[in-house]
Amino acid sequence: MRECGKILLPFLTVGVPQAAAAEKRPFRIVPPCGISKRRSKGVFSGASLSMSVIVLVSWMSCLSAQDKTPRSVWDGIYSDNQAARGEADFREACASCHGQKLEGRGQIPPLAGTDFISNRNGMTVGDLFEKIQVSMPADRPGQLGKEQNAGILAYILKFNKFPSGNKDLPADAEALRGIRFDADKTDR
Asked: Rounded to whole angstroms, what are the CA distances from 165 to 83, 111, 151?
């Protein structure tokens, strides 16, 4: 039986080249049945070569994007300097409701601890950033700038003991949607 039009991934159950490359495992692309790899003169056919180039370029761009964007809050997505700036903004704009230790007060939810983390498990950082951006502070929604909100979010992540990195957290909800909020490192 001939295998046609498949991506063979030894040692993997995931059937995409990006996953194989991310795990640094070998893979092989098998062309669809009926497409000849070579012409009689030993040169790739135009259609086969074009398809190969398209697949290769798409695959490489996916890998490139994966390398540039952290995928989880455990990947050091904010800097310590940004968190320090965010702490100052938090104290000024958020602490009166959420408390100095992010514990919350009355009906105001906490921004730290196991309940806060588990309630956001599986969300994206972009979802949390957007919520802060459009609804906080409660008495002046949307009044803080995107950079301030990114700093406050960095402070919240630091307070919850997520690791810092070398770059600031982007102040863009769309960019942050590619980063998962995982409660545990094992959720990755």
From this structure: 11, 21, 14
